[in-house]
Amino acid sequence: QVQLVESGGGLVQAGGSLRLSCAASGFIFSSYTMGWYRQAPGKERELVAHISGGGGTVYADSVKGRFTISRDNAENTLYLRMNSLKPEDTAVYYCARYITPMKRADYWGQGIQVTVSS
């Protein structure tokens, strides 16, 4: 079965950096676009970035220039490098398998907390 397991979250000061990882299993990782979503308290879940199997990327305007999504198809792992973090980046971050034609995810990880202190 499809499994997505996030790691690397935590507490960081504003201006700092974190790298999230997502270990994927149960499907042919390289064949799928993968994405990172986040959900802040009281807000809807939003797409942060996604990356195709070939490496093409799309970012939300709010993170462009600060976040970098990448993947290692040999290791079935998705990454999100987050630099210049802001308090408004505080959220639970989710790894997801993204279905491009439907513009939505079909499988999610359990989520991991990222907290940015001011």
Question: Which key phrases capture this entry?
Answer:
single chain; 118 residues; mainly beta; 7-stranded mixed β-sheet; 4-stranded antiparallel β-sheet; 55% strand; globular
Order of helices and strands: EEEEEEEEEEE
Overall strand count: 11
Q: Please tell me how large the radius of gyration is.
A: 13 Å
Helical percentage: under 10%
Q: How can the largest sheet be summarized?
A: 7 strands, mixed
Shape: globular
Q: Segments where pLDDT lies below 50 for 5+ residues? A: none
Distance between the termini: 40 Å
**Average pLDDT level:** 97
User: What structural class do the secondary elements suggest?
Assistant: mainly beta
Beta-strand percent range:
over 45%
Number of helices: 0
Structure, explained:
With 118 residues, the protein is mainly beta. The protein is built from no helices and eleven strands. The protein is globular and about 40 Å long. It starts with a strand and ends with a strand.
